[in-house]
Every structure is written in structure tokens, then in C-alpha cells.
Amino acid sequence: MPAKKTTTKRKSEAVVEEEKDAKKVKVSHTSHGKEAGQVLVLGQGDVGQLGQGEDVMQRKKPSLVSLPEKIVQVIAGGMHTVCLSDTGNVYTFGCNDEGALGRDTTEEGSETVPGKVILEEKVVQVSAGDSHTAALSEEGMVYIWGAFRDNNGVIGLLEPMKTSTVPLKVPMKEPVVKIASGNDHLVLVTLEGNLYSLGTGEQGQLGRVSGFFTDRGGRKGLDRLLVPQMVKVKGKVHFTDVFCGAYFTFAVSKEGHVYGFGLSNYHQLGTKSTKMCFFPVKLTCFKNSTTSWVDFSGGQHHTLCLDAEGQVYSLGRAEYGRLGLGQQAEEKSEPTPVTGIELASRVTCGATVSYAVTREGSVYAWGMGTNLQLGTGEEDDEWSPVKMTGKQLENRIVLMASSGGQHTVLLVKDKQES
């Protein structure tokens, strides 16, 4: 076999390995899960999203999910959960009404326990929204299943009004290195540094469809929304990363500039205005010569962001404590430091909840806790960060967290493995 040739396109972001004889690429990105562990769940489980069978309707504290393999990434959709194994297999559980699980669940109760999605390629990243799931293969191909919805109901997936209960290949001419899902949209970063989007665009979250055409694509119809197309920015911009909130999108350029588009009715994009942004806006509130932004996550009306130093910030709507800035906090139009947390490695949001995973492997939660998804054991809102506890967290390190809003999923590993 000839030696593998490695070309670094972006030093810390995306890497492609090309085998001369196979002419196939293997994509890599800093966001792809590397550390394997076990899965814990908590919160609401009424449609099987906790993966613990038909009888488990709720968990006050983190509880272990039985899976056949070690897991490297967990994602909580609106009412379903997606797990990616260290061998590249995808497991799903929860609500399958519109095909979000990507597998047959006709056998009674089968949606309430983990089941494998049949994909012929090794998967390196997954994302999920309210009713859809997406998977990125190691060769840069994207697969999607389920449905996108707008305010009037289902709009389809890749074709107008056609949903899918099994994975479909997303038509792309470039290898993709990163995928991110909002509630009903999907954004892709390609190896060449281009940004593509598909799904619902009513709030501007696609970054390429004007307000005149967001109602089911206007005269051109739903193809305008469902066929992936490039998000264009003035000048030559090379994108290296993308993150989604429920109805908005953040994209980061090679130079470290942050662009945003979508819903900003509570300033969750960091714009001074509360108008929707239908096309990318360079966000000046993130421009600081000493700050490098490494992670973003958005809920329904708020955003968490993380700088390279490990400081967590929040902005957007303050109700129910989702900003973590205390009971007297008001909505914020620019990143505001969240105190009471050690240096963090990741941030994540559900609709009205927030989480920060620390570099030491703890997880802090705040926001609306009416479904016990904060891990405090109480159905109360938390206005400041609270460290999550529980028997299953003892002697374990938290690697990542994800929340659909009503339930939370954690990826953990035993301390002695570190």
C-alpha cells in the first residue's frame, strides 16, 4: 500500500487524507468526537427519548443507557436521541412519528430502546433537530432522515412534502467536514470552506432566502428551501465552523470572524436590532482582538458561547434563568460572562435550558427545570449555574452534554480511564 498523504487545509479545523489508489477522501474536524464513553440520560421520557424502555417516563438524576458499543457523540433532538459509536454506527431512540429515528419501529416498544440505523458508511458526526436527524460519513457524505417542518406543518426533507424513515443521501458536490442542525434546518461546512443550508427558512436561519420567499419558497416552491445551496457572503470568506440555535445560525471564518443569521427577536444573534437576519451579518459584538471563540450553542431565544480561555458567556432572552446571570438579569445583546463555573470545554443549549461542561469533567446546568432536565431533582428554574450530581456521575468525567429542551443526554467516562 502506498503511504497515506495528509494535506492540512485548516490547521486546527479540517483535515483530509487522500489515498492515491482509492481517490477517496477521509474528512476530519476538531468537532468530531474522539473520546469514547457511556451514555447517561435524565428529564422527560414520555416518548422513549431516554432509551430505557416503555415504563420509564422520567428521570430525576442521570441514568445509564444500555448500548452495545462505546459512544463518542450524543445529540438530543426535540423528542429523540442520537448516539454515535466509536466504530461509526448510529443508534437512535425516542419519537419516530415523522421518521427521525431512521429505522423500523413497527415492533411495539422498539422506539423506546436504542436501535441501530442502517448506513453503509462509517459515520464521524451526527446532528438532530425537532423531527430530523443527519449523519456525516468519513468520506464527507451527508445523510438525512425524518422531516423538516414550518409553522404550517411538514414541508418535506430533500423533496417537497416527501419525508423519509430511512437515511437519504444529501446531494452535494463537495466533501463536507461539519454538520449542524437547528430545529428544522441543517447547515454544512465543506472542505473548501463553503457554507450550505437546507430546511425551513421562515426566520432567516438558512442565510440565503429573503423574507419574500421564506413561505414555502415562494414562486419557486419548496425546492428553493430543500435543495442545499450555498450561503453567500460579500468578499471571499473561508468558513471553518458552524453552530445552530433553534431558529438561527452562527458561522466562523478562518480569520475568526463570527457571522450570524436567523431569528434575533431577543438579540440572541448579538445584533443591536431585534429584526430577523435573512442573510449573514458579521457580528461586531464578537470582535475582540483578545478573544477567540471556540464554541456556540443556541436555544429557542438565547445563546451560549465559549472562548478559548474557557470562559462561558450568554446572550438573548433572560426569562426562566436561561442566561445563568441571576434573577435580576435582563436580556443581553452581547456576550455576557457567566460566573460560578470553572473553566469550560463545551457549552450546549436546549430550548430554555443551558449547560456547560468543565475542563475537569463536571457539568453545570441552569434555566427552566420543569421537566427535571437540569438534574437538581426538583421541577424548579435555576437562575445561576448549578453543578449536576447523581450516583452515576460519581467517579466519572463528563465529556459532552446535549439537550432537546425536555430531556438531557450526557456522554461520560470513568475517571480511571483518563
UniProtKB/TrEMBL annotation:
- List GO molecular-function terms, semicolon-separated: guanyl-nucleotide exchange factor activity
UniProt-listed SUPFAM superfamilies? RCC1/BLIP-II
Q: Which PROSITE patterns match?
A: RCC1_1 (PS00625), RCC1_2 (PS00626), RCC1_3 (PS50012)
UniProt xrefs under Pfam families? WD40_RLD
Domain (RCC1-like) ranges: 38-410
Q: Where are the annotated segments for Disordered?
A: 1-30
Coiled-coil ranges per the record?
none
Keywords noted in UniProt: Guanine-nucleotide releasing factor, Repeat
Please give the GO cellular component terms listed in this UniProt entry: cytoplasm
Instruction: Give me the RCC repeat coordinates as residue ranges.
Output: 37-87, 88-139, 140-192, 193-255, 256-309, 310-360, 361-414
Can you say what this protein is called? Regulator of chromosome condensation
Q: Origin organism of this chain?
A: Collichthys lucidus
